[in-house]
Amino acid sequence: MRSYPATVSSLIHHCTFSVLRRTLSLRSPATVTTPMANGSTTATEDSLRRALADKQSTIDARGSAIRQLKSSGASKSEIDEAVKALNNLKLEKTSIENQLKASISGDSGTSRDAFRQAVVNTLERRLFYIPSFKIYRGVAGLYDYGPPGCAVKSNVLAFWRQHFVLEEDMLEVDCPCVTPEVVLKASGHVDKFTDLMVKDEKTGNCYRADHLLKDYCKDKLENDLAMSADKAAELKHVLAVLDDLSGEQLGAKIKEYGIVAPDTKNPLSDPYPFNLMFQTQIGPSGASTGYMRPETAQGIFVNFKDLYYYNGNKLPFAAAQIGQAFRNEISPRQGLLRVREFTLAEIEHFVDPDDKSHPKYSEVKDLKFLMFPRDEQMSGQSAKVLCLGEAVSKGIVNNQTLAYFIGRVYLFLTRLGIDEKRLRFRQHLPNEMAHYAADCWDAEIESSYGWIECVGIADRSAYDLRAHTDKSNVALVAQEKFAAPKEVEKLVITPSKKELGLAFKGSQKMVAEALEAMDEKEAMDMKAALETKGEVQFEVCTLEKTVAIKKNMVSISKEIKKEHQRTFTPSVIEPSFGIGRIIYCLYEHSFYMRPSKAGDEQLNVFRFPPLVAPIKCTVFPLVQNQQYEEVAKQISRSLTAAGISNKKDITGTSIGKRYARTDELGVPFAVTVDSTSSVTIRERDSKDQIRVNVDEVAAVIKDVSEGRCKWNDILQKYPAHTSASADE
Amino acid sequence: MRSYPATVSSLIHHCTFSVLRRTLSLRSPATVTTPMANGSTTATEDSLRRALADKQSTIDARGSAIRQLKSSGASKSEIDEAVKALNNLKLEKTSIENQLKASISGDSGTSRDAFRQAVVNTLERRLFYIPSFKIYRGVAGLYDYGPPGCAVKSNVLAFWRQHFVLEEDMLEVDCPCVTPEVVLKASGHVDKFTDLMVKDEKTGNCYRADHLLKDYCKDKLENDLAMSADKAAELKHVLAVLDDLSGEQLGAKIKEYGIVAPDTKNPLSDPYPFNLMFQTQIGPSGASTGYMRPETAQGIFVNFKDLYYYNGNKLPFAAAQIGQAFRNEISPRQGLLRVREFTLAEIEHFVDPDDKSHPKYSEVKDLKFLMFPRDEQMSGQSAKVLCLGEAVSKGIVNNQTLAYFIGRVYLFLTRLGIDEKRLRFRQHLPNEMAHYAADCWDAEIESSYGWIECVGIADRSAYDLRAHTDKSNVALVAQEKFAAPKEVEKLVITPSKKELGLAFKGSQKMVAEALEAMDEKEAMDMKAALETKGEVQFEVCTLEKTVAIKKNMVSISKEIKKEHQRTFTPSVIEPSFGIGRIIYCLYEHSFYMRPSKAGDEQLNVFRFPPLVAPIKCTVFPLVQNQQYEEVAKQISRSLTAAGISNKKDITGTSIGKRYARTDELGVPFAVTVDSTSSVTIRERDSKDQIRVNVDEVAAVIKDVSEGRCKWNDILQKYPAHTSASADE
């Protein structure tokens, strides 16, 4: 006998770990998919491990044969021959070991690290980002965006607002980060938003239990070449199921493998849950606990009623929020990818659960891109290019609205400059999803760290609104008014106050409520039983006992009623964007190196599209000369007035060096003032140069920066600059 | 004998309370200037109180005279006559009481409250803002911005970026809110960022001590009409000096006046300081205390070195940051004006202390607006219109750079729509400023709450960079390279290690350091004394004793040295914007009511300039009709593609109601589709209507929304719409 709210709270208790870390950085191995999840390299590695083990046993056998030869007094030539053969075997073994090493780390392993180092060095040197509070030796997991990084972020967010909020008519809200406990109690974060932690038993240093186990397995697999193929398979299995291990299972593995604290080699505690929210006190009394929000979504859910009203009490509609979120990670790693404070952009699209069609679905249904459905993952295949519309019609993607957002996210990311060949949409496996979720897809972007979850797109059904309805006693529901009233068969349960009062006295009310809360099947069963037996046993949860219900105590019937509207809890489809992760992946996808003109050094370039570029244009006089500087200033002023970010460079450095500097910031256009009437505009990647009149420059740069025309159009409209000036 | 770092830390200890609440909401009475600070209403009130007291004593005297008449057996007519005269006196007294009441509350008092209520009702009903977490009964001092409020905020911030960051070439940064303790220890916030609090001794409820005293005084002054003019003057004096009272003084006044807890009438504790920062723990160990930043400025200061390098090691330059800040107010009041989490936009302009000129000063020096210099405040005058350039040349404003920012802030606020007649720049009084600050001006905007500090513009000298240099041991300094080396007379102090060692053994090092730390005057005095007397007494702080220094222990001389550069700590000029306060004042300045066409109701309008308006344009078909709806959709799509926020209204409501709805959101333009070829565009405030072809609509609205042309230009270009359609 459970009333409706009790059902909701049981949902919370059943929900899995991953669901509560719902928006991003759900779980580390899921976010950085390991190669073997694709079932690619495993075969070779296995056979090499077996070959190595075979070779080793041959070597061992030959070794003991030689010892026998020696002890049996065999001839020197005979022994020499045997030793020579053994040495050849050893050489073969070394060769297999090298192949195995290469197979494990992947040929690309070292080049990937080197590439990352080149990108990160450039980013930090040019202040795209830097560790926060550096002069005080910093804080792990906190980063500052310097001027170019801040401009990139601001451009990405402006485009997000245009692409989602404006084009989809979303209701944007802006809620505080400080959140009272009750809200996060309702959402489940207070109880379940945890990672498993172990402590160094002597120093008290803390580690994530899964990280330690993961590091141990990876290290063994990479460096212990003599390990048997079976043992290797076991460690790989541990890596594959790492997310699903309970605290006890993690603890048992840590004990079994003898894993100790990495810094001190001290023994470790058993794993225990650590809540990842930053806790604080609201107000001076110390009686009101609050947390820094771990996601922005709850601010939208608690406002559902007002937003629904603002939207004219009509569904579907979407609300959106951009803001800071906070997670007190146990030991942050991977630079900008796992941080303690980050910017989220979240959309909650509220829809009738009985109608998840989308009016603009036809605009995305013909899009084709890399998708990685559940079945392909389970059967060890890899992601493949699918047509979105077909994925919906085949039932791979649950509904049109979910598909619409997948399509819009694809367009958003690729327009920012994410390489579509390194972008895939991966469906959650059943064990990654809460039982109430209808479907869930992550936009994953491949970087030097592997495939990174950057956007989660989930159909979360009615879970969140129900949780807050339950906790707040404010009904977060929608109504559909029928065009004509509908006749509906309704269950009517009418307890008799008089009879219940006589039988149960003070407990009357609770018995009556329990009777009224019965669902249809329970009620009809009771009706049948009362009619045949006249009395039934009935469990009243709130009394914690079973009572006898007699026929005269309750009337149960089905009646035909006219209904003018239906009331329901909307489903929510939630695209949630980790802005910092998208930006980091964009940096990697935009970075390349090319030789300088003299060929004596490699120069760094970010190929940001103008939309994203932190500065749209640099302006420099070809030589230090007051007239040219005046023209440069005038152009810069007209660009600024047009809202185009630009930078003057009036240093006396060579024009080649100045181009290199501006390329390294990803500035798409450079204006070189080499006369007072017309100037040269150079495009970053092609290095094409055209001549444009001084008074047209701002308009040309504005058009091409804001996407109203392409560089190629401009290239055809204006004369090329082909002078022999020593410009690069 | 103090070494350099000791000097810096002594600066921190001397700095006043107000300086640490540096950016905004420094102190409540300062932010809401009380009328009497201008010395305006006081005179009338005083004379009325005196007249009332006179009248009362006349009444008392007459009363006892009548009693004497009665007891002395006077005639009935004589007594009746005296009673009649007494009743007249009582009527006169009531009249004076009413005058006094009116004088205290001000005639405008009630209309101000009514106006505020009308604005706030509209704002909350249309979801400009709402109390956060309303379904859980909210949290004091936390507010959500709903869709229109969020759009206004986003427009204000975009304009701020254009007006300051882009036009002034500032370096924008984005730092985390979570801040380690060491940073805020260095800035002084950990020790001094406090308000004085008292507790209900029985329930533990907390109150701001100054608020209770203020409320008591105001209540007495308003309601105790019989209070003597002297007593009234005393209470007014308390209100005037409230900010300067120490905890003990506040406590003494609370005791003297018998002030108790307002809710329970229980006795109160003595006042004690409560730190206003939200505290938390960073990481899982519990060993690393952090705070939610109370301002964004510190993130810029700690990055000074990198930013200076990014700027090519050149001064001046400015860094800027927009972000959330947090203050755990004891008992927030005044709606959006005093909140626990808010958006700050801060600029730190770093400049050579020896040269505070500004290259663009000439662009602002002719601006004229309301200024309220220190002298005018102290002598009881009011703010007056001054020319900014004259204020600088007369020494009223300390320097050009400070004046430049005052001028830019004036332009920023008035372009947003702040009424320049209700905007003044108030200079800080000496007791409001730290001793190290060179000058400080607040942009104050008049609202129904009084004059509100919305932007603080302070020349903070080298204080902040020195504080972090001291704490971090990283020199946050700049260099000026001389064109030619300069000859400088330098003091050279050379302690003799040998002689000091013989005399002071283990204390040798500390004595030597103390000698080296002498300033020029001390050193030259010592040199003279040693030459005449051969020995001097010298206090060594670090040893806490005085030692005897002999002539052979130290050599002191002045030498001429060549210097190629000078190293110095830059001064910082800081304009700091409370975005939420500016927006709230903007709401009040933009709000008005006008009668509906039928004259039967008052309609609300926000006269936002297009720059600020949350939605630039509404589009509606004149009648419900598929053709018109198609045209409306097409126009809406073209507006969206042009980045112009717009809203369709296809409800069947009357066109007048739809105009009223859109006026109440401050939408400047409404497009009514009344044909399929051309449509009507209506301007909100003038209600002017013009006819524009369907395919030109988006371009016209975009031009006028983005300020490329004015409505009046458009009005002349297109035919007026004067049809008799019942549109309003």
TrEMBL record, chains A, B:
PROSITE patterns hit by this protein: AA_TRNA_LIGASE_II (PS50862), WHEP_TRS_2 (PS51185)
Pfam families: HGTP_anticodon, tRNA-synt_2b, WHEP-TRS
Domain Aminoacyl-transfer RNA synthetases class-II family profile as annotated: residue spans: 113-595
Record flagged with keyword Membrane: no
Main EC class the enzyme belongs to: ligase
Major localization class: cytoplasm
Binding partners and assembly: Homodimer.
Protein name, per record: glycine--tRNA ligase
Protein species of origin: Helianthus annuus
